[in-house]
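Late entry, TZP complex.
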Amino acid sequence: MNSLGGIRSWPANWRSTTALMTTTESVRKIPQVLTVAGSDSGAGAGIQADLKVCAARGVYCASVITAVTAQNTRGVQSVHLLPPEFVSEQLKSVLSDFDFDVVKTGMLPSTEIVEVLLQNLSDFPVRALVVDPVMVSTSGHVLAGSSILSIFRERLLPIADIITPNVKEASALLGGVRIETVSDMRSAAKLLHEMGPRFVLVKGGDLPDSSDSVDVYFDGKEFHELRSPRVATRNTHGTGCTLASCIAAELAKGSSMLSAVKVAKRFVDNALDYSKDIAIGSGMQGPFDHFFGLKKDPQSSRCSIFNPDDLFLYAVTDSRMNRKWNRSIVDAVKAAIEGGATIIQLREKEAETREFLEEAKACVDICRSHGVSLLINDRIDIALACNADGVHVGQSDMPVDLVRSLLGPDKIIGVSCKTPEQAHQAWKDGADYIGSGGVFPTNTKANNRTIGLDGLKEVCEASKLPVVAIGGIGISNADSVMQIDAPNLKGVAVVSALFDQDCVLTQAKKLHKTLKDSKREI
Ligand SMILES: Cc1ncc(COP(=O)(O)OP(=O)(O)O)c(N)n1
Ligand SMILES: Cc1ncsc1CCOP(=O)(O)O
Ligand SMILES: [Mg+2]
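Prediction complete; structure with ligand written out below:
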């Protein structure tokens, strides 16, 4: 297993051969997923959701249908199982023809259907298997009874690369154990891992009493709690299928498992947020729009791609430090991401344009494959040329409203602010977040006034935008920053604490842990 959590026979930087391969006849192949699941006539979940997710993520998806449901936003009216022999016919048909990177399973409603799936997977081995153990619909309809539990436990889970149960499904697979807290989810993930899957993701969306939606990921050694603010919407039908097929799509493109899971969680959060007000159907559980990424928010003409929680551990590179430690920007960025950086900024003050552009392009590729946004400091031209996710500018750089008009509505723009007035202006000009500091004295930026924790708090209180603190922050004082009691302070941005260090990976991991611990205390 590689340090990023690579799967089965995939090396750390495995990329789908089909994604990159060009034959002598210049035939372009694209990553391919096969979904084996049930049809949802309302098209919010099941096969229909899987097809939409893969299309939205740029991956081809074939479909083998196990059951047809009569279903709408009010619930499931009836279910018709396809004969196992016919499920097998479909499986043979596509598995013998296509070169699938990943198979994803959803509704497997009978033992016989699981049997034919297992037989076909043994006849036609695939690179990875994502198992979403669908048992009950969002509306409460049983889609696979308890009779399938033993074949799931004994034969399907052991060959899965990842399983993605919600708390009810995890409980059923574990014989009815109670799962009511995040700590229970961790214990459940561990027990499920003992059944054989390489990775386990227990989804906590149904957990009561939490303003965050928390999923627990376990790789056999380490736990990761993946948190995101709960989106208040009735349009949640199909979130489980969407998450699992997005994981499958990202794996097919060559992501490591943890990155695929993070991208998928963010995809679901963004889709929910974008679709929170749409009205399709008259029932309690509406579908959401998987193609939000192709559209603009009609009100602000902005696309909802920026997640303020990504400011949690903001890694800002520095060419001088990289030179000092004899590492390339690309290696520095990779290590920071592996250590837990949640957003990257390339701040290369002395780089030549041509060289910087090449390095920025390589960093864009790395960041995309890990689902981490990449911003460029000061240089709008470089950001445009490498198609970065956005830019960070200061008070003496290009004005934010002009940056917005050059970059368009979809890019992330951050702006440095030391005062409440600047924070107000940043919001008016269309920035997405504020970088505020220097909080503490620093040698990294010369002639930079220190505003202290009080100055930071003043900016946070005045700001309608999320804020990231910067300046002299490291493992020893990050906690004091996060404790200032400002809900819109989302994280810390650091340069020397990560990059003026012997091992970027170790420092990033330590700082990430410090931030996580301090968040728990708040
Ligand atoms: C996240 C973040 N916050 C603040 C800054 C500082 O930007 P600026 O004031 O433009 O100074 P330079 O970085 O350009 O020297 C930042 N880069 N990132
Ligand atoms: C770019 C910048 N803007 C305000 S302080 C600062 C430097 C932060 O560097 P460090 O994290 O090494 O103190
Ligand atoms: Mg600047």
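Residues 196 and 294 are 38 Å apart (CA to CA). Will revisit in the morning.
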